[in-house]
């Protein structure tokens, strides 16, 4: 039973299983090669999980629960266990087929349905996934819910008593600070924090934490792809650079390349 105190909050953190950022992508005749590839928790989502845990460490008993959710094939449960080992309380896995392509709009629709079920006060997610780089889900979800949003957060300050959150974000001219009433949505940037490593005891504890399995049909969200991938090509190999001794030599090289 959820406590009735007005300052008890619930956090929802969507996460995605993506290719490891340190792995070199291989492109084959049918697109990006997935066999033998090492995948893990999307780094921006890892930052979001870390921030949720830190907010609870600061607020202590004011935050009731941190729930992580992932939409993807069976192996997506691995990143949920990682998030649980970092400090999340429970997880929801919306399991899709291995070859299903779940586009940002479908993810946002599914998350909207989950928000209706879980009633979180704050949704924290990575600003983008490093596989498709869409950076769309946070804005789409905020629009669907009619909630305020702050994207690319570099600092987050949660006032649990007033139920407000203050977010600083980097812009071209410096920093922009936004204050929002809860419920709200935040997307995280790289400079927000440094995620912790999950300790072995916490990894073992994570295996016993609740992980709920769901089917897309239960959310009544349309996962039908709206986009068609026409082609995928690896970028051409980069040519080696050359050192020059003077400005005249730079100009000569530019003319030789046809730039000037």
Automatic annotation (TrEMBL):
Example of a GO biological process term: amino acid catabolic process
PROSITE patterns: ETF_BETA (PS01065)
Cofactor(s) the protein requires to work: AMP; FAD
CC terms in the record's Gene Ontology section: mitochondrial matrix
Cofactor mode of binding and number, as noted: Binds 1 AMP per subunit. Binds 1 FAD per dimer.
Keywords, sorted A to Z: Electron transport, Mitochondrion, Transport
Chain segments carrying region Disordered: 220-245
Function in brief: The electron transfer flavoprotein serves as a specific electron acceptor for several dehydrogenases, including five acyl-CoA dehydrogenases, glutaryl-CoA and sarcosine dehydrogenase. It transfers the electrons to the main mitochondrial respiratory chain via ETF-ubiquinone oxidoreductase (ETF dehydrogenase).
Protein name: Probable electron transfer flavoprotein subunit beta
Protein's organism: Rhodotorula graminis (strain WP1)
Top-level taxonomy: Eukaryota, Fungi, Dikarya, Basidiomycota, Pucciniomycotina
